[in-house]
Design a protein that fits this description.
Blueprint lengths: L14 H7 L7 E6 L5 H15 L4 E5 L4 H10 L9 H13 L2 E4 L6 H15 L3 E5 L10 H11 L3 E6 L16 E6 L7 E9 L5 E6 L3
Parallel strand pairs: 1-5, 1-6, 2-3, 2-4, 4-5
Antiparallel strand pairs: 6-7, 7-8
Length: about 220
């Protein structure tokens, strides 16, 4: 993954996506939607790692499903260690991850108001510039797309939300009028390394479809 030059916002780490979106911009509301076990969390985690580690941009990750230990395990699993001599590299990667401006909160049973309060503190204390909420369905009360957009505008940072798509994305949000960017994640049959990302909404700009790598 590499950042693309001339990006207006925060790069995702996937140049093909950044070419279409120009990065995640202040007050953007970005929705990552997909069915169960298609790679939504892996996608969000790899973006978080790139932004915090490679770009050194403070990021807050609210995990309403997985614990801190499980999240780190997901990241390490993506590295696919196959030879004994690779463990030294992995150990170095873990230390780099721990030193990065990545603030993970795995508190369960939170509301959007709880997250808003925590983010305000993180912005003030650590200059957090982007947040990811995973998984939207596990908030105490599922917020409207409008309330999430209001929060992004109030904090003036991009907010990425991961949303499970069971009966269709529309079942979760009445509509996507307030979302700036909508990404749908699909997994090709029999492929656990790659995912298809369909950019179905991108403001007034172009949309597109790209393949991304979730595991080495």
């Amino acid at each position: 993954m590499e950042a693309k030059k001339n990006i207006k916002g925060i790069p995702s780490g996937y140049s093909e996506i950044d070419m279409v979106t120009s990065g995640w911009k202040p007050s953007d509301l970005i929705v990552i939607a997909g069915r169960l076990e298609v790679g939504k969390t892996s996608f969000a985690l790899l973006m978080a790692r790139y932004i915090a580690v490679d770009e050194n941009i403070p990021l807050a990750y609210f995990s309403l499903d997985l614990s801190n230990v499980q999240l780190v395990s997901r990241l390490l699993d993506a590295e696919k260690i196959q030879r004994p001599d690779e463990w030294k590299r992995l150990d170095k990667d873990v230390n780099v991850l721990m030193d990065a401006p990545l603030y993970v909160d795995d508190t369960q049973e939170m509301s959007l108001a709880d997250i808003r309060t925590k983010v305000q503190e993180l912005v003030h204390q650590h200059n957090v510039q982007i947040i990811i909420i995973d998984n939207l369905q596990l908030l105490n009360t599922t917020p409207s797309c409008h309330s999430l957009k209001d929060m992004a505008v109030e904090l003036n940072i991009p907010i990425i939300v991961v949303s499970q798509q069971d009966d269709g994305i529309v079942s979760q949000f009445k509509d996507f009028n307030d979302a700036d960017i909508v990404l749908s994640v699909n997994r090709p049959d029999g492929n656990d390394r790659d995912a298809q990302v369909v950019i179905s909404k991108n403001g007034k700009d172009e949309t597109g479809e790209v393949m991304i790598r979730l595991k080495k």
